[in-house]
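User: Okay, second chain of the day. Same drill as before: sequence in, structure tokens out.
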Amino acid sequence: MTGPDFPGGQAQTLERTETQVHQPRLWRVLLMNDDYTPMEFVVMVLRSYFRKTEQEAELIMLAVHHKGQGVAGVYTRDIAETKVAQVTAHARQEGHPLRVVAEPEGES
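Assistant: Same drill. Structure tokens below.
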């Protein structure tokens, strides 16, 4: 074939390549226990920033209180880091030392 669609007037063969798409690694956002942040504030954070129901928020808050930490949610890295920054800023603004961390799923 010749013509403007084929440089040099020659037909070209295109090869199809397979692209593998991998799911991004997920990160857990953890709330850590401390002796100063009120339980009510933790519940409010879980409801406001992590869209938990009242019952879910209370169960997670109790895990934080009794086990030392609780999983607020699992997200891609960017979202997890954003949530950590937002909650930490809000806690500091309210005068609470609440510690929020993100770690890759599967680590403890």
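The helical segments are 39-50, 54-67, 77-93.

User: Thanks, on to the next one.
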